[in-house]
Amino acid sequence: MQWRNLEEHTVYANRWFRVRLADVELPDGTHLDHFVIRLRPVAVATMVNRANEVLLLWRHRFITDSWGWELAAGVVEEGEKIEEAAAREMEEETGWRPGPLRHLMTVEPSNGLTDARHHVYWAEEGSYVGHPRDDFESDRREWVPLGLVPGMVARGEVPAANMAAALLLLHHLRLG
User: Fold this and answer.
1) Rounded CA gap, 30 and 39, in Å?
2) pLDDT in tens, 153-164
3) Alpha-carbon distance 118 to 86, whole Å?
4) Average pLDDT score over the chain
């Protein structure tokens, strides 16, 4: 069953997102109003070292008032390539400049409400360039053994679904 978006208009917009109201037609011909949040792509990056440790950030999310492990992430700027944004975010938030990035996955974390796509990359090498410029993004940055990832996800220590999926896939690829 396919829903059809017949028309939508902007209700609110800023540099981060647009809230739009869509006129949606259901398969039986019924119409409903549906809010849609349009977002810029998000670039995500991490590194796995030779000891099979993954670089994570411990941070607080005020919206859900929760703490958890995450990967470096941020929106792709206008005209920026996604892979470049991933490398930039990793360096700004961790102080590590990744070596060649490999695409891990692209996910739609909330496709019933937003068109957000999160593009996750990882590197097997990198260089420490200094204290992170955006150190306000996290309380700390740590190298965590990939072997601990499934337990961390199960205990809710990685609350963001996109981050949990990426870490579990890295675990599978490296240790599976």
Assistant:
1) 27
2) 999 999 999 999
3) 10
4) 96
